[in-house]
Write a structure and sequence with these properties.
This protein has helices spanning about 1-10, 15-40, 80-85, 90-95, 105-120, 120-135, and strands at about 65, 75. By secondary structure, the protein is an all-alpha fold. The N and C termini lie far apart (about 70 Å). InterPro entries: ROS/MUCR_sf, ROS_MUCR.
């Protein structure tokens, strides 16, 4: 398989014989690592610290949010990132049992936004707006 991958690459990019042998070696090593990872997962040797096994509430931390799908860390788990996994924020929350009103942002970011909203009086403005549009 490694030779097929390198042959496909060499057909598009001119490579010296030394480069080809080095690329074959690297691709082969990567394929071996992938195979050993797959074999470990098939045997059930999953680690409890992987994102799939993390408590969803623990993924939202003070200064970061860990994506439970891929394990990447963010300040804010955006809709754009979730779209890469074919999910919306609602789908993500339902899949992992998070409350639908839970912000997918680091606690420090949520706290800073809350403070700014209070300083600007947005709560009172929102209440007034809702009252005026109910009638």
């Amino acid at each position: 398989m490694a030779s097929e991958i390198v042959a496909a690459q060499a057909s598009h990019t001119p490579m010296s014989p030394e480069e080809i042998s080095e690329v074959v070696r690297r691709v082969f090593d990567i394929l071996q690592k992938l195979q050993s990872i797959e074999a470990g997962q098939a045997e059930g040797n999953n680690h409890s610290d992987t994102p799939e096994h993390m408590n969803p509430q623990d993924s939202i931390q003070r200064n970061r949010v860990i994506c439970l799908v891929c394990g990447k860390e963010f300040k804010l788990l955006s809709n754009r990132h979730l779209a890469l996994h074919g999910m919306t924020s609602r789908d993500y929350k339902l899949k992992y049992g998070l409350p639908l009103r839970q912000a997918l942002s680091a606690k420090s970011l949520t706290q800073a936004r809350r403070k700014i909203a209070k300083e600007k009086g947005l709560v009172a403005k929102l209440v007034a707006y809702r009252r005026s549009h109910q009638q």
